[in-house]
Each structure stands twice: as C-alpha cells, then as structure tokens.
C-alpha cells in the first residue's frame, strides 16, 4: 500500500482516464481548476471538497461503455467497487452516462426498459446517483460546475491517496499488451475476434481487416509489428 500526498487541488483524474482523454484536464485547467493525475482505486474523477461538503467520486461511461458492461455483466462488480471505495473514504459515488440511451435500442435491439431497469438498480439498490449527459462537452461542463460548487481550492482537504499495488491478472496483462499496439478500443475488438495474442500475431493483413475499425493501413502496421525482425541498432 503506497501513500501519495498531494497539495490541494479541485479534481484528481485517474491516470488511465487521462491517458485516453487528455482533453478533460485541458478543459478543467482552462476554466481555472487545479488538477492532478494519479491512479484512483475506483472511478475516473475525484472532485475534492471544502470542509462541510462531501467529495464526489465519479465514474464516466459512454452509452456504448454502459452497454458493454451490461452485456458482459461487469456493471454490478464495477458498481460495487465504486460504492465500496466511496464509502471507505467518505465520498459520494456518482455515475455519468454520456450519450443517447436510445442508441442501445436502435442499433443493438435492446429494449429501453431493460436499460432503465439497470439504471434504476444502480440508483436504488447501490444508492449511486446516475446522470445522463448528451455528450462529452456536457459532461465536462457538469464536472467543472460541480467542482466549483464544492468550495475554493485552498479550502479543500489535502488528499492522501491509498493505492494498493496488486499484480495484474493474466487477462489484464494480455489486454495491456494488445492496447500498447492498437489502443484500448481496437484491442478489445481484436481479442474478441482472434481470442489470443498468438492468433493476432499469426493473422494475415486480410484477416486483420475483418475487425471493425481496422483498414488496410492499420492492418499493415499490426502485421509489421509481429513480422519485422528487430535488432539493437534499429532506428
């Protein structure tokens, strides 16, 4: 367990979220908020608060993210982790679902009632408020407004973060390797299609192009990574 002491800031951004979406931090800073980037035990953003107010631990999901976590049945474990982390530290857990919920009905054939039942369970059983924003800019606007409503920066408590260092599971290590090659979105698509890193490495350019989002250029790049001989003097 490591302890990291930070000077007072308005928002702590999870390091993984920041690497995928650096635009959030830029918007926060351009609106006068002080930020820090650190690994969070749960959630994507921690909005710190002045005495008498409660910090807010926010999990951000796009509608597609929500759909994937419902389909894989990960939503309940994620909600449990968020609620437990918030309770342990005295934070208010909060989920933002970004985008039009009707996308899941229109393009995946899901009944909107089923999606709403999941949200209902999150709010009533897990006691996690859920806010649906229309787009990323609206999400950013809400986070900025909420952070400012929690008090002046210099009044906010210094956050002593407890980060438990756990070894990555085999599944996480496989995903990490794939993400280092093509990024988080395509990594999952590739692994769903080919199942193993070995199969990805052995795939032809034509076979790689079967995956949605991978065209000739990207398929060729992936193929070259696995089929180009490496040497110490290579530039």
UniProtKB/TrEMBL annotation:
Gene Ontology cellular component terms for the protein in this record: Holliday junction resolvase complex
Source organism of the structure: Staphylothermus marinus (strain ATCC 43588 / DSM 3639 / JCM 9404 / F1)
PANTHER family: CLASS II CROSSOVER JUNCTION ENDONUCLEASE MUS81, CROSSOVER JUNCTION ENDONUCLEASE MUS81
Name listed for the protein in its UniProt record: ERCC4 domain protein
Molecular-function annotations in GO: 3'-flap endonuclease activity; crossover junction DNA endonuclease activity; DNA binding
Domain of life: Archaea
Record Gene3D superfamilies: 3.40.50.10130, 5' to 3' exonuclease, C-terminal subdomain
One GO BP: double-strand break repair via break-induced replication
InterPro entries: DisA/LigA_HHH (IPR041663), ERCC4_domain (IPR006166), Mus81 (IPR033309), Restrct_endonuc-II-like (IPR011335), RuvA_2-like (IPR010994)
């Amino acid at each position: 367990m490591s302890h990291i002491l930070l000077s007072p800031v308005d928002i702590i951004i999870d390091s993984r979220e920041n690497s995928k979406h650096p635009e959030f931090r830029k918007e926060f800073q351009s609106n006068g908020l002080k930020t820090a980037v650190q690994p969070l035990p749960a959630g994507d953003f921690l909005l710190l608060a002045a005495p008498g107010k409660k910090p807010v631990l926010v999990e951000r999901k796009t509608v597609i993210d929500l759909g994937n976590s419902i389909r894989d049945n990960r939503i309940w474990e994620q909600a449990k982790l968020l609620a437990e982390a918030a309770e342990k530290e005295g934070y208010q857990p909060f989920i933002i679902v970004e985008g039009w919920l009707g996308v899941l009905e229109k393009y995946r054939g899901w009944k909107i009632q089923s999606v709403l039942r999941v949200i209902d369970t999150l709010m009533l059983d897990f006691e996690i408020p859920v806010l649906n924003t229309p787009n990323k800019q609206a999400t950013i606007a809400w986070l900025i407004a909420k952070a400012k409503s929690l008090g002046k920066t210099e009044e906010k408590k210094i956050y002593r973060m407890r980060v438990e260092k756990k070894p990555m599971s085999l599944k996480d290590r496989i995903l990490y390797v794939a993400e280092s090659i093509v990024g988080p979105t395509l990594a999952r698509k590739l692994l769903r299609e080919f199942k193993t890193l070995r199969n990805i490495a052995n795939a032809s350019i034509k076979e790689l192009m079967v995956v949605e989002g991978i065209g000739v250029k990207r398929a060729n790049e992936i193929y070259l990574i696995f089929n180009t001989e490496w040497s110490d003097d290579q530039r």
